Amino acid sequence: MLCAVAAVSPLAACGTSVQVSVPGQADGPMINIGVAVDEPGVSWYHEEGYSGLSVDVAKYVAEKIGYSNRQIVFHPMTMARRDAMLADGTIDFAMTSYAYEGGKDARAFTKELASRGGDVRYSGPYLIADDGLLVRADERKTIRGADDMRGRTVCVVEDDDVRGQLERRVDGVRWREESDFNKCVSALLAGESDAVAGSRPVLAGLRSEAGAAYADLVDAPFGRRGYAVATGGDRDEFVAQINMVLQDMIDDGTWDRITDDAERALGIGTDFALNPPTIVASRDES
């Protein structure tokens, strides 16, 4: 599981695409990548630009398929807009996450998500994390886990799989949906909801943003999610290529460096019973 947190820089949402530029590198075809802007420590936008673990993975993937940093354009993306942006060609791939209970051997991930239907294809996951709850600090002793949310209001981001995860574990929850995590945190602190549900590493970053005196993480996680790369249309070869790149990232030590950087920056820990996932067993596997 990813857990705990250190301070993070202030989060600022961005409504326009941002090109990541590295002086001295040649221009060429651009690669358009959809990323979240409201997930501190994972994928977010602040004064220094886009950063976070998933952003680092996106840059690695882009480089390995032939694009320099100068050729990357990051597009702000919400979960609700993700599939539409893939379908209309606004983005070439999306850094995203989905409910996933398949364990460390993640080679069934693509098939599991493909069973949902639709025109989106999936590579990965490159990280498996727990879902959990963020509550007001003064409710920390009252809300100890998912069962305590019966009869209470939980805020979730639109189209986040976390709602289904929680619904399968407890009934009688009242739901509030918002377009992004910032609005969910505002509703929480205003007393309009009792908890925010989401990925624990993201919630940890949100807690830091709000301040530990105002918001806190519930220790008992529920459900898991896989962080993955989503592509649109019938692009099985592209999916296989990205799977190979993600496995290379694990095998060449880059995955360790990226997660180590996250640990130093945010104070998170990685559950090695689940990570790193096995994405491709051999170069003969597609």
Automatic annotation (TrEMBL):
Gene3D superfamilies: Periplasmic binding protein-like II. Pfam families: SBP_bac_3. InterPro entries: Bact_solute-bind_prot3, Solute-binding_3/MltF_N. One of its GO terms (biological process) is amino acid transport. Residues 30-266 form the Solute-binding protein family 3/N-terminal domain. GO terms for cellular component: extracellular region; outer membrane-bounded periplasmic space. Keywords: Signal, Transport. It comes from the Bacteria. Belongs to the bacterial solute-binding protein 3 family. This is ABC transporter substrate-binding protein. It comes from Bifidobacterium anseris.
